[in-house]
Amino acid sequence: MPKPILFGLVGGAWRAEFYFRIAQALPGQFRLAGRYYHKGYSAGGQEWYQNPFAHGRLSDDEIAVATCLRSMGRYLDTGESFYSLAEASQDHYLSLMMDEATRSGRILESSNQVWR
After folding, report:
1. Which of 60, 70, 84, 90 lies at 20 to 30 Å from 15 by C-alpha?
2. Rounded to 5°, angle at Cα 76 from 64 and 85
3. Considering the entire predicted model, what is its pTM?
């Protein structure tokens, strides 16, 4: 019998759980090396981002939603904004610039707008 396939799982969304169950059901064919999740980003010895929901083993999209929900709760409690109209306007402007660059094939240069 061939050696079991060694693999690791990243995240905890439905796909990861699906593959985990397959490995449990077929231990002679699959061996789970570990379950990994997004802890944060670091580079050059500096930590740039730490996932506040790392214990939940969430996908990137789920982390984004959880962050927005937590931030919205803080906004409702304190009135402290977490994503201003100026930031949203700049993000939309950049999205439009990327669309135009893709459509035209040209290299475009963006800049901060009056709302920034």
Report:
1. 70
2. 65
3. 0.56
Alpha helices in 26-111 (DSSP H): 60-78, 85-104
CA distance 83 to 43: 26
Q: Enumerate long-range contacts of 55-62, CB under 8 Å, 24 or more apart.
A: 56/12, 57/11, 57/12, 57/16, 58/11, 58/12, 58/13, 59/11, 59/12, 59/13, 62/13
- Residues 66, 57: contact at Cβ < 8 Å? no
- pLDDT at position 72, please? 95
Q: Which residue has the tokens 């094939």?
A: 105
